[in-house]
Amino acid sequence: MYVLIEFLTWEDAVTAPASTPPLTPYATLLGFTRYVDRTGPTKATFVGGLRKQRASRSGFNPHGQFVKALKADISFHTGGTHLAGVVNVVKPRWRPLYQALVPGATAWLHSLGEPAAIDLAQTRDALAMLGDLPVKINPHFGVRHADGRVEAIRLYFDETPPSEEAMLATLHLMARHMDAVLPHAEPVLVDIRRGQAHHMPTDAKPDQIERWLAGEAAAFRAIWSTAA
User: Fold this and answer.
1) What does the alpha-carbon distance between residue 183 and residue 177 come to, in Å, rounded to a whole number?
2) Which DSSP letter does residue 8 get?
3) Could you tell me the superkingdom of the organism this chain comes from (predicted)?
4) pTM (2 d.p.)
């Protein structure tokens, strides 16, 4: 009921740069990775929906309070207390969604080790250019470990697990701009429902991924223009 796969989210609707006309081709990291995850005619349908809804500036963000609670548990070393409590304060319409998210998020939080051994790190947004397509790179937050490791975290909320394509695109684009996002950090995609952290595969070939994404970006722009 709450899967955000076919609909434009608040993130996609309102985060285009203010200086960019609303119908200029543009994608968030979320929107672009959902696009590359599709095949055939569903790509055109998806981009057309993004374009139409961008024009209306519509969208919603049901995960805001959830992300705040997770960040609070990291920042205050509370090990899941804020996550457990947010289910009771969120609007009733979103309560089933939060109830589905909290167990996996708590499991991931515990997998990081002792609460006192991790700290919240500030991330910054970056604007990637894939050919002529601007893509906003926006991790949710960073995590600093006691051993010196730093991770830039992007959360994945959908009911279905992330595909290999979505995972590779997300991690590659974050790594590509890590100097701006969170210097010296490793990109991590956290499948929050299942509590699983995904890292870039050791056998990944960045040059091949870059060429693949450049082709996808060119097709995205072409579809966007056709949908005008």
Assistant:
1) 9
2) -
3) Bacteria
4) 0.89
